[in-house]
Write a structure and sequence with these properties.
By secondary structure, this protein is mainly beta. Helices cover 11% and strands 32% of the residues.
């Protein structure tokens, strides 16, 4: 898997089979991020394979 978090490449991504497992392994909350797999927005139940390009983006809150 090729993983980036907020635009920064992660050289040794955690082993995860689903988006939810990946978010947890990164120490993030499901409510604070969006995840794209191969350019498509993916639900937390989506599977991840070793060939996928995964982008994790934090959602910015403000007022």
């Amino acid at each position: 898997m090729r993983l980036s978090v907020d635009g920064k490449s992660i050289k040794n991504p955690p082993k995860a089979k689903t988006v939810a497992e990946l978010i947890s392994a990164l120490g993030l909350s499901e409510e604070e991020v969006l995840v794209k797999i191969n350019g498509k927005l993916s639900p937390n139940s989506a599977s991840i394979s070793g060939e996928d390009e995964v982008k994790v983006m934090r959602v910015i809150f403000g007022g």
